[in-house]
Amino acid sequence: MKFTWFHLMPYRFLPDDFKEKYRSVWVDIPRNLYDPKLGHRLYNDYLDQLEFADRMGYDGLGVNEHHQNAYGMMPSPNIMAAALARRTRNANLVVLGNSIALYNPPIRVAEEFAMLDVISGGRLVAGFPVGTSMDTNFCYGEIPATLREKYYEAHDLIIKSWTEKEIFAWNGKYTKLRYVNLWPRPIQQPHPPIWIPGGGSVETYDFCADHAYQYSFLSYFGYIAGQKVADGYWEVMAKKGKEDNPYSMGFAQVVAVSETDEQAEKDYAPHMDYFYNRCLHVYNGFADAPGYRTVKTIKAGLLGQVGKQAALRREGLGWGDLVEQGYVIAGSPKTVRERLREALKSLRCGHLMLLMQIGSMPPELVRKNTDLFAREVMPYLRDLWTGYEDRWSPKRLPQAEIAMPAPVKFELEVKTNGHARHGAESAAEVRGAAK
Amino acid sequence: MKTVQNVANGKFSVEMEVVGSGAPLLYLHGAGGLTGMDPFLEELGRDFKVYAPHLPGFGESTGGEHIDDVLDAVLFYHQLMDELGIDSAYWVGHSMGGMLAAEAAAIDNSRVKKLVLTSAAGFWLDEHPIPDFFAAQLDELAPLLFHDTNSPIAKAFTAIPDDFKALEAMYVERVKRLAMASKFLWPIPDRGLKKRAYRIQAPTLLLWGESDKLVPPVYVGEFKKHIKNSREHLLKAAGHMPMYEQQEAFCSAVRSFLKG
Asked: Most Cβ neighbours (<10 Å): which of A380, A419, B6, B161?
């Protein structure tokens, strides 16, 4: 069993009356609600949290891409992965991922992923989401009706750019290039493992099954509601005669560990409320542009993550309901161990994406959650799926070949105008303020 | 009368309303499509032979995957005319259909006797942004489309069926139509008509509802600027859907312009 510590990097400081006052956390959220000074603290806190997870033995560190929103502040997850590549040693860098239809030409993604793979010594997981409708259609202006076709073409180009031995020309419908010649090449050959984040589009099952990619279901409804999607995936795999290897499936789950079940409620309930009522407060008109989902998916009745339907489903849910219905797996280490084991087994999931900072959770609570889970839960679940080979994790360079970054030293060694400048002082100040 | 026309050796199958008799009039619907309750077609049919094809992707028409942009759509309409044996026609285009009719005229004047553009899309003014009707919810749509949101016609347009099956069918149909429309209108309904509109030679009527909030009458000025042989006619107590909201005044304006 493998565990990825997944960060959404939300903006933690939306006003209490946000939901009443504004129609959407995404697309047209007022810019003046963002304070870059607080943003500075948040990015650094969040990177600290991921670096801590690396030291606590999590298998992967997860980041993803979203635009024009307070739900997740990573327009470019590659920038976060680059920062992590230098400051972490153990965990894989799970970039889940780049919305490849948005980049022109898409080989930019192939290049940046190759850079990350080379810098990190082969620790990259390359994620290719279609992207939400808010991100792709409304923020980045992609025509809904052709988004998926453009996505598939971008995928084919990226894969070919990684695998083709010779320079080639690409005469696509959306991208035309006379010379495709990828420098640098990724360390992992022929390319890093590919994970496809899905929100329940039925086409994504087939796509993953046909290419032997990992299917990552990123849901906020939790494992009970997610069962339908997991079943759909395994059904397609079975129909196509593919191996039912649990490592070919990832699942995102909010997990909150505390000393006792009661303490968990005290610790986490307000932050869940912030997440479900502010971070996911998306105007229904932005949830699903016409043509973003195929008619086939609409008819399959798979609900979106955001918008009116999703909000209605969550309406009036208190902590007890969220726990009961599996939106969040929370409680004492024992409770979390038991429920997670049950969830992972029934989903047949070998790669768990843990959402451990959620909504407005402050750094000390995130640290506690991360620490308790690593010590009191993770070791007890490692035995799951031991008979299966994980072909979806990166294959890094042998330890002896890994380059070591020079130790970090904040003091400037160069004197300016005869005065020594002490960067450490101001950095410490900022860190102190953030704690 | 509803007909199904096979076009381009089966590349497209086109559901089409064909009404009346007289000189051919080609009606190009907007992004909302024809509703099945379009009495103005009958009314125009008293003087013209009206052809109102559903653009592929709309209604029962198929072949939408062969149309990606304005040029594809224009050539589709020209092919349809070829196969109907119509050299030249009166063109009446509403909203998205107005945009496509103007583009068609710019590409081939010989196929257009006269042109009526009503509530037409195709231009963009930064000072007068066209509201994002793709994101609008049903209850937000009525004020964008109608002068009087309490009129029976406005209510009929934005009614939500009680029955779940009917609701799902309506939703799927809406998604299909707007997905097709997004190829010409998303995210900004401007595909460069301003570069090409100078080519339009046909006498052109710019027929607008005075209280059109989706493509406000200020856009009439843009069309006038680019189309030399054009004049305007504003309809009172009409919004973006004048052929529904003020059917009589709309049809009489079209008739007297085309016959005049």
From this structure: A380
Residues of B in Cβ contact (< 8 Å) with A299: 168, 172
Span A266-317, pLDDT tens digits: 999 999 999 999 999 999 999 989 999 887 777 776 556 667 667 767 777 8
The answer to whether residues A378 and A96 touch, using CB atoms and an 8 Å cutoff, is no
- Decide: helix, strand or coil at residue A190: coil
Instruction: Supply the pLDDT for residue B170.
Output: 86
Write down the mean pLDDT value for chain B.
Answer: 96
Domain ranges of chain B: 2-259
Task: Mark yes or no for CB contact A145/B180 under 8 Å.
Answer: yes
pLDDT in tens, B50-107: 999 999 999 999 999 999 999 999 999 999 999 999 999 999 999 999 999 999 999 9
What burial class does residue B189 get, using C-beta atoms within 10 Å of its C-beta: 0-12 exposed, 13-18 middle, 19+ buried? buried
Task: Inform me whether the C-beta atom of residue B256 falls under 8 Å from chain A C-beta atoms.
Answer: no
Helices (H), A300-422: 308-314, 319-324, 333-347, 363-372, 378-381
CATH of the domain at A389: 3.20.20.30
The superfamily (CATH) of domain B2-259 is: Alpha/Beta hydrolase fold, catalytic domain (3.40.50.1820)
Whether A201 is covered by a domain: the verdict is: yes
Q: Is the pTM of this model over 0.90?
A: yes
Residues comprising chain A, all counted: 435
The number of distinct structural domains making up chain A is 1
For residue A357, give every residue at least 6 positions away whose Cβ sits within 8 Å of its Cβ, in sequence order, or none: A7, A8, A10, A46, A49, A366, A369
Task: Please check whether residue A215 is in contact with residue A196, taking contact to mean a CB–CB distance below 8 angstroms.
Answer: yes
With an 8 Å Cβ cutoff, the interface of chain A facing chain B consists of: 137-138, 141, 143-146, 283-286, 289-291, 293, 295, 298-299
Among candidates A84, A82, A40, A76, which has minimal Cα distance to A58? A84
Distance, CA of A145 to CA of A122 (rounded, Å): 36
pLDDT at A304: 61
B174 touches chain A (CB under 8 A): yes
Cβ distance of A290 and B179 shorter than 8 Å: yes
Return the DSSP state at B27: E
Query: Is residue A410 in some structural domain?
Result: no
What's the CA gap between A254 and B231, in Å, rounded? 62
B32-47 pLDDT tens trace: 999 888 999 999 999 9
> Residue A370 in contact with residue A49, Cβ under 8 Å?
yes
Range B112-120 average pLDDT: 98
Residues of A in contact with B160 (CB under 8 A): none
Q: How far apart are CA B233 and CA B221, in angstroms?
A: 12
Would you say residue A429 lies in a domain?
no
Give dist(CA B215, CA B98) in Å, integer: 11
* Contact at CB, B137 and A284, closer than 8 angstroms: yes
| CB contact (8 A) between residue B178 and residue A295 | no
Tell me if residue A95 falls in helix, strand or coil. strand
pLDDT tens digit string along A73-90? Answer: 999 999 999 999 999 999
Chain B hits for A144, Cβ within 8 Å: 179, 182, 186
In angstroms, the separation between the Cα of residue B224 and the nearest Cα of chain A is 29
Q: What is the ipTM of this complex?
A: 0.91
Residue B165 distance to chain A (closest CA, Å): 11
Residue of B nearest to A173 (CA): B68
